[in-house]
Structure formats: structure tokens, C-alpha cells
């Protein structure tokens, strides 16, 4: 046996489920007389002592794990043995590769024809139970056991023994039968299930599963199924095969849900065939009922018949609900055919009748059916309600019935209202609406919804907000209004002009903001979220509506009433104002500061309101002095380098401009007026630059550092590469920067002196290879006058006339 030796480590699992190391040795196999069979022998490599002596039992599952472990459990005491293969013995030239499970099974498959079952006798039940239990770990042995059970009709013989044991009150035998039947379930074979779930066997199988050894008293499943559970035919079923299939499915479902113990982690996948059996049974039942036109016709006729009594109608609705629930097991193609059949039979008109009834249980079941239809095909439901709107009043429209049931939900937790709100949201969601060449479902349905249904949805909101605070502020009303606001907020986000017209025309936002005074924080936050969604759209129609109606007042009041508490309300309100500041919504910024600044100016733990004030002041300055707005744009543009070609194009366009066009619009200003204007503008510029520095410190923005001292302006140079090399230099003397309302810095009107950023195309003078060419006269200093005269000599006459002012 030396040619097959392997070096291994032997472990056993102790009571604490920890591994005990028994030592390292070499494994071999041989016949052991004491054990009367072939055995595994492991002898220690150190002294040759015997570490392991284990009889090889054909019913023992030897499992290979992690490529190097062989694990099994001894039948006598269920101690777990582990051999870890350490590698090839260096002294052995020829070794035998470890046989993995699949190879072992193939070998066994060739060597043994099949599994031989013990005779089905009362005295051998324990042996049968052990055989079934030992076969479950190995796929090959499970297969052989299943084949043996099928071929020999073994299950029926076991069930005959069950009657014998029950008559003899042989509890031990009944416990063995429980283990055997449970093991057969875990074999996961459809052929065996067909036998076990047949009409003659299924109740005996359930009887075997009543005798769980873990329970002191047997369960009474058969008594429940035969006496308590009653089968009602709301519409008589003429097909006996269909009736038998319904009975079978109910009982198998009961076995799965109530009789069989909850599967362990290792057994979860062993009942997959049982799930499939139930699934396909349901598919067959739905198909057979769907094909029976007489059955469905009678069903819907009785549903809508006013003569049908309430109890009968409740049974019919419950049947239809379960019928739709079964349809969820169908494949998409079959489900399409199923709902199309129901639609042709008139399920939606029937639901409309049922939802108008007073019985709450019937209405609840009808709501569940309606949810199946909406989830499957919302377009079908929308098409129906638009068609019925042409014939019926608004009060009895299907969608309005749904809204009314939502509003009138008596459940304190509003469970039904939440479900209905979800269905309404699906129906008004433009994402699942169809658009074709002939019609647009979105336009048609939303037009219908806002005309016929929206007033019903907003009725509780309008009824509760007639004053400055909610007229009813109990928890259930607050929950309902929160649901309504959630749907309205969804509409604001997705419906654009439909909801905009409705909100502005009906003054909805003012009514919603009344809820800011609610004692329920979640409702006040819903109202705030609604307004925040509107502001987030940055739509000037909404903004003008908010300003005209002073709709920030309830928000500011809520903010002040909240005090210094650091909670969600505080954060949400500040975030809304911060959004207005960051997005620079000018109209709202001005409105808030002009009307609510005194109430908010003391809030200094965030810089939001001070930032809003700063935005407002900058905006006011630009409105009061457009030239400062132009100056601000010049200073702001220093961050962006303009392309040299743009500069050249602008200069060439100006030089090519007809002088007559330029002179027509020029204003003639005397030098004294110029000087006076320069002084005024200079003061304004100084103030403006001081405010810019303040903004720089508060907002930490990097601006162009400008230092104005008296009338001196700093000097900047910009070199441009072009066909003629050009230098743009601003004069260090007191100058007038050219500027005009149309384009800041363009010639033709007096500008304002000051620093000019490096990338500005409008500058004081241009130096070319041909000499210094002055664009604008600077008649402030005597020295400059002389230089300017020289410059003028170099200009063409047409240009001189242009610059003399």
C-alpha cells in the first residue's frame, strides 16, 4: 500500500465545535478484522502509532472541501473527522491523485447498478429512515434513492405502514415515518411529488407529517383541512379536472407554508421543485379559467348585478382578487393575454360599481384588484377614465372614486390612503405615458386630470386652510394633508404648465403655507418642501406670484417661532434662502431684503442672510449707476483671457466705422464739464472699489487689487502679437477712459478714469512701429498736451476730427 500513501493531518470536532488536532501521519486503507470491513488507517509519522482507524461505510458521505480536506461523520457518535492532505510523500515515486466527488460518483455509477431498498416492513422503518438520511448529502445517492422509490412504488407501501402504525398507536414507527417522508420531500423530485400529491395519497402524506418527534403532541392538520377549511364555488365549476387542481394546489400550499418545518440554511434549495410544482399548478388554473368564457361572463354579470346580495358579491370580489394574484405567476406574454381578457370582460366598469358600494371589505378587495391593473398597464386605465368622462359626471368617475376613498380612509394609520396615493402617482406620472404620431397621452390625460379631478384632490387642503392656521390639526388629518402635498409636489416637478396654472389661479401656495402653523412638524415640513420645489424651478411666473402675495411671510414667521432650536425646520428654511442666494435669484433676493430684513438681520450663526443683503446691495448699485455695472463687468472679466484675434477684430471694426455715423451720436462736452464729471465719477469709483474690497473679505473672492490714490491710475501693459506688433499702455496721468452704454470703453463718449484689466481691448493709447497713435485726447496736463499735439500730427485728418471734442 506504500504507493498510495498520503501525508495527512487528522482533526476531530469537539463539543465546542472546535477542531482538535490528533497529529500528522500517513493514510492508507486495508481490511480490519475487528471492524469487519475495509477501513481508513492513519499512522503517525513520528512513531507509527495509530491515529485513526475508521471503517469505510458505503452510506457515509465523504465530502471534499477546499481542495485539501476530506470531511465525514462517524455513524456511531456523529463525531466529525477531518483529514487534511499535506502533499506528496517524498519517498513515494508513484502516487494516486485524490478522487474528487464527481469522479467518485462516476466510478460508483459504473460499479453499482442501483440502490437496494430494505423491504417495507414495520420492523425495518428505522433502517429505512437511516438510509434516507444518509443519502441526502450526496447528489448521486439522492438520485439512486429517488429512482428506487419511483420504480418499486415504495411511497404507497410506506403510507400503508402509516395506517398500521396509527391503528397500533406505534408512536416510534410514526416518528420514523415522519423522518422518511420529510427526507423524500428533500429529494426534490417532481415524479415523487406527483405520487405524494395525488388525490389518494396527499392526506396520508399530511398525516405522516403530523408526527414530528420534536413535538410532544401530534398536530391536527388533516382535521383542519377536512372540517375547518371549506371550498366555496362562487361560480359553479363544471370542469372536474380544474376543481381537482384547485384542491391539490391549496393542500400543497398548506404543506409548504404550515406543515413542513422551516428549512435550514443547508435545505433552502432542496425545496425548489416544490415551489415550482405550486407555481405551475397556478399557471394551469389561471389558463383553464381564462379559457372558460361562460365562467368569466357569469362572474362579471353577477358582480355588477344590483340584485346580487352583499355576501355573494363579497365572495365574488375575493375570488377575482385571488384570480388576479394568481396571474402574477404568469410569464409576461401570458399575463398580457390575461389582463386583455379581463379588460374585454369589463373589469374596470365592474370595479367602478364595486368601489361605489358601502361595504369596506368589498372596497378594500376592489382596491387591490385596481392596483394589479394599474401596475400592469396604467395606460389602459387612463384610456378608460378619459372615455367615461364624456358620458358621466365628475362625481362618479373612477379616479375621483379612488381619491374619495383615499380622503375618507378610516384607518388611523391611513394604510389604504397610502396605497391609493401610490396608484394615483403612477397614473399621473408622465414617465409611463405613451406618445405616438396621432396622439400624446400626456397632454390629453393631464388636461383631463386638472379639469375633472384636481379639485377633488385639493378639496381637503382648501377646506382646512380658510384661516391663518389649520382649522383641523389632528394627527389623521395632518397625515392625509401630507399625502396630498406629496402628490402636489410630484406634480410641480413633472407637470410644468398644468400645475403652474392651477397653483396661480387657485392661490394654492398661500393655502399650503397656512400649514406651516401646524403643530405637526412633518406637515409643516411638507408645506415647506412644496414651496422649495417651486422656488427650485427658478420660474419668474412663480416668483412674481410669490412676491405679489408676500408668500415668504409664513416661512419667516415659522423660522422666528422656531427660535434657536437647531432642528430640521431650521435647516430646511435656511437652505431655501441659501439656494436663493447661491443661484442669485434677483427678484426674490430684493423681495426678501426689502420686506423681511429687519426680522432676519440679527441671525448671525450663518452668513446666509448677510450674503443675501450683500447681493441685494450690489444689485441696487448696478441699477442706480449703469456705468458701475459696466465697470463691474470689466473687473470681473479679468479672470478670462480674451483671444488676441478678438481684440484685433474689434479695433479694425472701429477704425472701419464711417466717421459720419460716429459723429451723429456724439455728445459735445466742454473741458470744464469734463473735469467736473471726472471728479463726481472719481468719488463714485472710490466708493465702489471700497465696497469691492468688503465683498472680497466676506465672500473670499480674489478680485483685481486696485489702489486708487487721488486721480492717479496705475499702469498696466499688454503685448499683442499680430501682423503689426502692438503695445497697449494705459497712461499714468489723469485720463478719461472711453466708454459708452452700448459697449464699455468704446470711443465716442467720456468714460471714467481708473485701472483697466490686462485683457481689456479698450485702452488709452496704441504704440506701433510707425509711431504713437492716440485714440483719445487727454487734455489734463501741459506736458501731455505737447505730446498729444505730436500724436495728432501723425493721425489722418478724419481721425483727428473724431478725437477733437
Question: How would you portray this structure in words?
Answer:
- Residues 5-83 form the PP4R3 EVH1-like domain.
- By secondary structure, the protein is an alpha+beta fold.
- It is built from 35 helices and 11 strands.
- A 7-stranded antiparallel β-sheet has the order 4-3-2-1-7-6-5, with no helix packed on it. It has a 4-stranded antiparallel β-sheet with strand order 8-9-10-11.
- A hairpin with a 6-residue loop joins strand 6 and strand 7 (80-87).
- It is flat and about 120 Å long.
- It starts with 5 loop residues before the first strand and ends with a helix.
- 25% of the residues are buried.
Instruction: Name the beta content range.
Output: 5-15%
Number of strands: 11
The class by helix and strand makeup works out as alpha+beta
The major sheet is characterized as:
7 strands, antiparallel
The number of helical runs is: 35
Unreliable spans are 87-111, 657-677, 699-805
As a whole number of angstroms, the C-alpha radius of gyration is 45 Å
Coarse morphology: flat
- What's the overall average pLDDT, rounded? 76
Distance between the termini: 121 Å
Strand arrangement within the widest β-sheet reads 4-3-2-1-7-6-5
Measured as a percent range, the helix fraction is 55-70%
What's the gist of this structure?
By secondary structure, this protein is of the alpha+beta class. The protein is flat, with a radius of gyration of 45 Å. Residues 657-680, 710-805 are annotated as: Disordered.
How is the topology of this model organized?
Elements: E1 6-13, E2 19-32, E3 37-44, E4 50-55, E5 63-65, E6 69-73, E7 80-87, H1 101-111, H2 125-135, H3 139-151, H4 154-168, H5 171-186, H6 190-196, H7 202-208, H8 221-228, H9 240-259, H10 272-291, H11 293-304, H12 310-327, H13 332-345, H14 347-355, H15 360-376, H16 378-388, H17 398-407, H18 415-427, H19 441-452, H20 454-464, H21 475-494, H22 497-506, H23 508-514, H24 521-536, H25 540-548, H26 553-562, H27 568-582, H28 586-600, H29 608-624, H30 626-636, H31 644-656, H32 659-664, H33 671-699, E8 717-720, E9 726-729, E10 765-768, E11 771-774, H34 782-794, H35 797-803
Helix pairs in contact: 2-5, 4-5, 9-10, 12-15, 14-15, 14-17, 15-16, 15-18, 17-18, 18-21, 21-24, 23-24, 24-27, 27-29, 28-29, 29-30
Amino acid at each position: 500500500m506504500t504507493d498510495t500513501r498520503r501525508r495527512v493531518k487528522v482533526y476531530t470536532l469537539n463539543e465546542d465545535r472546535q477542531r482538535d488536532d490528533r497529529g500528522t501521519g500517513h493514510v492508507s486503507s486495508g481490511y480490519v478484522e475487528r471492524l469487519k470491513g475495509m477501513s481508513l488507517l492513519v499512522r503517525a509519522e513520528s512513531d507509527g502509532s495509530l491515529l485513526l482507524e475508521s471503517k469505510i461505510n458505503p452510506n457515509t458521505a465523504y465530502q471534499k472541501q477546499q481542495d485539501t480536506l476530506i470531511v465525514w461523520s462517524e455513524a456511531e457518535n456523529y463525531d466529525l473527522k477531518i483529514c487534511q492532505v499535506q502533499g506528496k510523500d517524498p519517498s513515494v515515486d508513484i502516487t494516486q491523485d485524490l478522487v474528487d466527488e464527481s469522479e467518485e460518483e462516476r466510478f460508483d455509477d459504473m460499479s453499482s447498478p442501483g440502490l437496494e431498498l430494505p423491504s417495507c416492513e414495520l420492523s425495518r422503518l428505522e433502517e429505512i429512515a437511516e438510509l434516507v438520511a444518509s443519502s441526502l448529502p450526496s447528489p448521486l445517492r439522492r438520485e439512486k434513492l429517488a429512482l428506487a422509490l419511483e420504480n418499486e412504488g415504495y411511497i404507497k407501501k410506506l403510507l400503508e405502514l402509516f395506517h398500521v402504525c396509527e391503528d397500533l398507536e406505534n408512536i416510534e414507527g410514526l416518528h420514523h415515518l415522519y423522518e422518511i417522508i420529510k427526507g423524500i420531500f428533500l429529494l426534490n423530485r417532481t415524479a415523487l411529488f406527483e405520487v405524494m400529491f395525488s388525490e389518494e395519497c396527499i392526506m396520508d402524506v399530511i398525516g405522516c407529517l403530523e408526527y414530528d418527534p420534536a413535538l410532544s403532541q401530534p398536530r391536527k392538520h388533516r382535521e383542519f383541512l377536512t372540517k375547518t377549511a371549506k371550498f366555496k364555488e362562487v361560480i359553479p365549476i363544471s370542469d372536474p379536472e380544474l376543481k381537482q387542481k384547485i384542491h391539490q394546489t391549496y393542500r400543497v400550499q398548506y404543506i409548504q407554508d404550515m406543515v413542513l418545518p422551516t428549512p435550514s440554511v443547508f435545505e433552502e434549495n432542496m425545496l425548489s421543485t416544490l415551489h415550482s410544482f405550486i407555481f405551475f399548478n397556478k399557471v394551469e388554473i389561471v389558463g383553464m379559467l381564462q379559457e372558460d368564457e361562460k365562467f368569466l361572463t357569469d362572474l362579471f354579470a353577477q358582480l355588477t348585478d344590483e340584485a346580487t346580495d352583499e355576501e355573494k358579491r363579497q365572495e365574488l370580489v375575493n375570488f377575482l382578487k385571488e384570480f388576479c394574484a394568481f396571474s402574477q405567476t404568469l410569464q409576461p406574454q401570458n399575463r398580457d393575454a390575461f389582463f386583455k381578457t379581463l379588460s374585454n370582460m369589463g373589469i374596470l366598469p365592474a370595479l367602478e360599481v364595486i368601489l361605489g358600494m358601502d361595504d369596506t371589505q368589498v372596497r378594500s378587495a376592489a382596491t387591490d384588484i385596481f392596483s394589479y391593473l394599474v401596475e400592469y398597464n396604467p395606460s389602459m386605465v387612463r384610456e378608460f377614465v378619459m372615455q367615461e368622462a364624456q358620458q358621466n359626471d365628475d362625481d362618479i368617475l373612477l379616479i375621483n372614486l379612488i381619491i374619495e376613498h383615499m380622503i375618507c380612509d378610516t384607518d388611523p394609520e391611513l394604510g389604504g390612503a397610502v396605497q391609493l396615493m401610490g396608484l394615483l402617482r403612477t397614473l399621473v406620472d408622465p414617465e409611463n405615458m405613451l406618445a405616438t404620431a396621432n396622439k400624446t397621452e400626456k397632454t390629453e390625460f393631464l388636461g383631463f386630470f386638472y379639469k375633472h379631478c384636481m379639485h377633488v384632490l385639493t378639496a381637503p387642503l382648501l377646506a382646512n386652510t380658510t384661516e391663518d392656521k389649520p382649522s383641523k390639526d389632528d394627527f389623521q388629518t395632518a397625515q392625509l394633508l401630507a399625502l396630498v402635498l406629496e402628490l402636489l409636489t410630484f406634480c410641480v416637478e413633472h407637470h410644468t404648465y398644468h400645475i403652474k396654472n392651477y397653483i396661480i389661479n387657485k392661490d394654492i401656495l398661500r393655502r399650503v403655507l397656512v400649514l406651516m402653523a401646524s403643530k405637526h412638524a412633518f406637515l409643516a415640513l411638507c408645506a415647506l418642501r412644496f414651496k422649495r420645489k417651486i422656488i427650485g424651478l427658478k420660474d419668474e411666473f412663480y416668483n412674481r406670484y410669490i412676491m405679489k402675495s408676500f408668500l415668504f411671510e409664513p416661512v419667516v414667521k415659522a423660522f422666528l417661532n422656531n427660535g434657536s432650536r437647531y432642528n430640521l425646520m431650521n435647516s430646511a428654511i435656511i437652505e431655501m434662502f441659501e439656494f436663493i442666494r447661491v443661484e442669485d435669484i434677483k427678484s426674490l433676493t430684493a423681495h426678501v431684503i426689502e420686506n423681511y430684513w429687519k426680522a432676519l438681520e440679527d441671525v448671525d450663526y450663518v452668513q446666509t442672510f448677510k450674503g443675501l443683503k450683500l447681493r441685494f446691495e450690489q444689485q441696487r448699485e448696478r441699477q442706480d449707476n449703469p456705468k458701475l455695472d459696466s465697470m463691474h463687468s470689466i473687473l470681473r472679466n479679468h479672470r478670462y483671457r480674451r483671444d488676441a484675434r478678438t481684440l484685433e477684430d474689434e479695433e479694425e471694426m472701429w477704425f472701419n466705422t464711417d466717421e459720419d455715423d460716429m459723429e451723429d451720436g456724439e455728445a459735445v462736452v466742454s473741458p470744464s464739464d469734463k473735469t467736473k464729471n471726472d471728479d463726481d465719477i472719481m468719488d463714485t469709483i472710490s466708493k465702489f472699489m471700497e465696497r469691492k474690497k468688503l465683498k472680497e473679505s466676506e465672500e473670499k473672492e480674489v478680485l483685481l487689487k486696485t489702489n486708487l490714490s487721488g486721480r492717479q491710475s496705475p499702469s498696466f501693459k499688454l503685448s499683442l502679437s499680430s501682423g503689426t506688433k502692438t503695445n497697449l499702455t494705459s497712461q499714468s496721468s489723469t485720463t478719461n477712459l472711453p466708454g459708452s452704454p452700448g459697449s464699455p470703453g468704446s470711443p465716442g463718449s467720456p468714460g471714467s478714469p481708473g485701472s483697466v484689466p490686462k485683457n481689456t481691448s479698450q485702452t488709452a493709447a496704441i504704440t506701433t512701429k510707425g509711431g504713437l497713435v492716440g485714440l483719445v485726447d487727454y487734455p489734463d496736463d501741459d506736458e501731455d498736451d505737447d505730446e498729444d499735439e505730436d500724436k495728432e500730427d501723425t493721425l489722418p485728418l478724419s481721425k483727428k476730427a473724431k478725437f477733437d471734442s
